[in-house]
Amino acid sequence: MSHDPHIPASAHRADPFGVEPQVLDQAIGRIVDGEPLPGDATLVADMLVRDTAVVERLEQHLVVDALLRDEVGYDDAAFVDAVRVMIEAEATRPAFVGRVRQAIFGGTDPIAGSTGAAPARWSGLSLSVVLACSLLVLSLLANGIWKAAAIGEPVLVEVAAVEGTSAYAVGDRLDLRTLVLPDGEVDLLLRSGVRLECQAPLMARFEHPMRLHLSRGRIDIDVGENGSGFTVVTPAGEVVDLGTRFSVNASADGEVRVAVFSGQVELRHKQAGAVNLVDGEAVRLTKSQAPRRLQSVEIRSRNPGDRKAVVITNVSDNVESPKHRRFYGLVPCGMRDGVQAFRDRREVTWKSEPGDVFPEDLVGADLVQTFQAERFRQDFELQFGISQPSRIYIFYDARYSPPDWLARDFVNTGRRILSTGWSPARVTRGLQPDAWGALAIPHDVWCRDLVRPTAVTLGPAVLPDRDRNATSEFESLVPSMYGIAVQPITPAANNIGTSQPRSQQIKAVPVAARR
Amino acid sequence: MRVGVRGRHRPRTQPPEAGLTGFFCKAVSGGYITTVMAKKPPDNQWFIEQVEQQQSALKGFIRMLGVRPESVDDLAQETFVIAYKKLEMFEQGTNFGAWLRTIARNLVRNEIRRQSRRRVLATEVAEFLLDRADEKATHPAAQVEQAEQHQQRVAALRACLRKLPKRSRRIVKQRYFEQLSLGVIAGYENTNANNISQILFRLRSSLFSCMKERLGDAST
Questions:
Q1: Which of A92, A214, A503, B135 is the most buried (most CB within 10 A)?
Q2: Rounded to whole angstroms, how far apart are CA atoms A153 and A137?
Q3: For all residues of chain A together, what is the average pLDDT?
Q4: Which of A132-136, A225-229, B54-58 is predicted least confidently?
Q5: What 8-state DSSP symbol labels residue B67?
Q6: A1 to chain B: which residues are within 8 Å by CB?
Q7: Residues A229-283: tens digit of each pLDDT
Q8: Is the ipTM of this complex over 0.90?
Q9: What residues does A313 pair with on adjacent strands?
Q10: Angle, to 10 degrees, between the axis of helix A40-50 and the axis of helix A52-68?
């Protein structure tokens, strides 16, 4: 290294422009750090014009800053995934416009028309049509008719699944204008292929087949191949689908929660404007409060007979960043062979080791789908609660020594499972693909029993200090994020089905009471 | 096939050329470049490969235009999405990285026009850097593939990081690895945010000198 970083680089420079070099360096430093003081920008901009050496100095700092951020701060695979989702959404946008026109105007599209000649006819009439429509709307408003018309049109739906309610039966075909569900769950299929999974208590109404007003309750929406552009209007803002699966939950107090399970949605909020949410992101918002991160989202189990009472509650972490909107997926009874392991890696799943069966005592445990993005943070903490006596499982990257908190509070069961389906990335550096070309990371299964409802705090995934002696600490610190599952030990009264652990599988594990 | 030159938007009455499945004219935002070329369906696989190859260099380039660190990813993603939407305008075989940088420059120019302090560090400084990037784009050296150059820089930086003293490494890690604010690092280091900013300034200077020694002037 040619320079000692503790001696100011500008200490011996001349001062041809009457500006203290140290003052200028400090201003450049603050600008590059993104935290300039008032006057810094004016001073630096002025000197950039007058002195080419200042230009070079600023560029040097931006180069190194950009390289450092790229080297250690960002997750390349997540970035590529985000772009992939965006371009897929772009590819489906023209089809969406056509479907919206069809939904609003019926079988014949008056704008495009059924033949090539139609656009010319309509373009000639456009001004008069617009004027006529405007007069009609004004007239309706003046006569109070608009409010009644805004209730919406009946929409043909088919009942695809029902649970816990007698209000609907599978196979029913209904013309629905309003949708009220006091109990249970019902799945509705629209003609466009949009599937609405409604959970009580729910109140909603259709404006037209591509636009639903949700007043209260949760709807998980799978727009399928033809439903892109489906819009949910809530008291806090609009959620426009751009080709995806997502969930909207409106509570009685006006708060709305939006989570994206795959693809992308555009959230339109009166104050915050348009906000794009991609796969793995979730926010909560109200009419007056801009979208902010929603830390965990329950992902409904689709397996009949699964216990409905979730054991894990309130999953959260200590990451505070305005851009950070990742949520933890909470899947009741979700742990099984082949389930998605991480929220930000759709293709990565939990699997048994080759030639082994998936550990039976893990099957049916509540699963927390963590994400890779924050695995570098040394001060990372993840908290959750358990509502009944449970066994906590942690799946830690077996290539690395366990962090202190894990070794102290948990017991290594000696078993392993794999997270498979990785694309080549920093986290898989050094792994060899199997015969099918897939990359898999081995995870040790650690566990701990907790005999009463309590709060659990887990630490960072990064390595303890003693393991940071590789060639470069920046290159060596790449364990995968850990996974979490929780299996209730004593079945709760409201648990039903076959996913509870069998009593003979429970081993006595000392409960560490240090946390 | 790019036959466009500076000029106004041309109507769709250009004579078709042999072998073209379709053609159109389009004015590139802010650039007044008219382009006529074969219309091809976007090739997703090829495009994603380009994203994987170009993303690091593009993010570095955007940062060099004076964009706030936390907005670099956003603008890089927007750049790729616009590139995808206008993929018909890209001539296969030419420098895709240079084309991406043109789009990125236009995006940053829009941010500056909007006086968007949310995404740009300081409008005055960003304007200067953007003008400079525009000048460099017309220089023959701009045609050199930057992705390759970027990899050389990354390798040099890694080597230089290993040589840093312990405290410096810790501060680099806190700032870039853990993405802590200057104030939080100052709390850990028992000093103030301004001191941390100065230490980071000196660290970047010494890392740049080290990289320069390894790569020579041209590559840095």
A1: A214
A2: 17
A3: 76
A4: A132-136
A5: B
A6: 160, 163-164, 206, 209-210
A7: 899 999 888 999 887 889 999 987 888 999 998 888 889 888 788 888 888 889 9
A8: no
A9: A385
A10: 120
Cα of B192 to nearest chain A Cα, Å:
13
Predicted pLDDT at A9: 42
Tokens of A16: 């041809």
Inform me whether the pLDDT recorded for B218 exceeds 50. yes
Model pLDDT, residue A189: 93
Q: Which two tokens stand for residue A103?
A: 């939904």
Query: How far is Cα A164 from Cα A427, in angstroms, rounded to an integer?
Result: 44
CA distance A110 to A100: 12
Distance CA A479, CA A254 (A): 41
Q: How far apart are CA A275 and CA B8, in angstroms?
A: 34
Would the CB atoms of A80 and B125 count as touching at under 8 Å?
no
Average pLDDT over residues A319-334: 85
Report the C-alpha gap between A511 and A30 in whole angstroms: 49
Q: Which residue in A300, A293, A260, A514 sits closest to A408, CA to CA?
A: A514
Neighbours of A385 (CB within 10 A): 14
Longest dimension (CA), chain B: 72
- Asked if the model's pLDDT at residue A118 lies above 80, the reply is no
Q: Which residue has the higher pLDDT, A114 or A71?
A: A71
Contact A321 B179 (CB under 8 A): yes
Q: Which residue, among B177, B169, B178, has the nearest Cα to B200 in the 3D structure?
A: B169
Q: Which residue has the tokens 């790449």?
A: A478
Structure tokens at B146: 């930057």
> Over 90: is that where the pLDDT of B36 sits?
no
Nearest-CB residue to B210 (from A1, A63, A322): A1
- By residue count, chain B amounts to 220
Report chain B residues whose CB lies below 8 A from the CB of A377.
Answer: 178-179
**A265: closest CA among A276, A256, A254, A257?**
A276
Chain B partners of A29 at a C-beta cutoff of 8 Å?
197-198, 200-201
Residues of B in contact with A26 (CB under 8 A): 194, 197-198, 201
Q: What is the pTM of this model?
A: 0.52
